[in-house]
UniProtKB/TrEMBL annotation:
MF-aspect GO terms: hydrolase activity
Entries under InterPro entries matching the protein: AB_hydrolase_fold, CMBL, Dienelactn_hydro
Stretches that traverse the bilayer: none
UniProt keyword terms in alphabetical order: Cytoplasm
Record has Cytoplasm as a keyword: yes
Compartment list: Cytoplasm, Cytosol
The name this protein goes by in its record: Carboxymethylenebutenolidase homolog
Amino acid sequence: MANESRPCPCDIGDRFDYGGRGQEVQVEHIKAYVCKPPASTDKAVIVIHDIFGWQLPSTRYMADMLAANGYIAICPDFFVGQEAWKPSNDWVSFDDWLKTRNAAKIDKEVDVILKYLSEQCGAKKIGVIGFCWGGAAVQHLMLKNPHLKTGVSLYGVIRFFEDRSSLLHPTFFIFAEKDDYIPLEQVTVLEQKLKQNCKVDYQVKIYPGQTHGFVHRKREDINPQDKPYIEEGRKDMINWLNKYL
């Protein structure tokens, strides 16, 4: 599935057989996947995908999990029609590919989605979660968007926003101990800067023995020893949202 020279750990256990319980909608210029809970609610969560895009079954599985926990969940295509990264792509071209997909340039799309959630779904309290590229986008939004109540950044790429830490809203950071893409030294520096500059509630948590993508990509039955941490990460994410939404 991935280049043998640099296999992506995210490819482990992709839920290619997962169809999703929600539906695809068009919100102005953006396509999005929406899943709603059985009971009506005024709470919603924007799900920001990783480099593999808004259609990745594993990400939709997480959106459905949020809906099962009482939230309207929406996963927009933040690449806005541009092609998502494929596991078969050559990693040599990754940096060039990434230049046209900046995690800090999603504000226009977020505003469109916030309007949709408010006007079409009756949402009054809105949070955001994101994975990898999307985790970095969460940090960006927590630094500047006044309309979001809280965020959960799952293995967000720290180097994108490492010099900024004055968060506006309570933010939970999930990291993996054995993440090849986010060294623990970067996590330590992030914690130090948050401690110095952050005036709102935040938490940084490192999950032992885990690799990049562990919360949303790795199927629980592939590595049984990881299952408790996968479940803990998901539970922690839901608990944080419950606390602040």
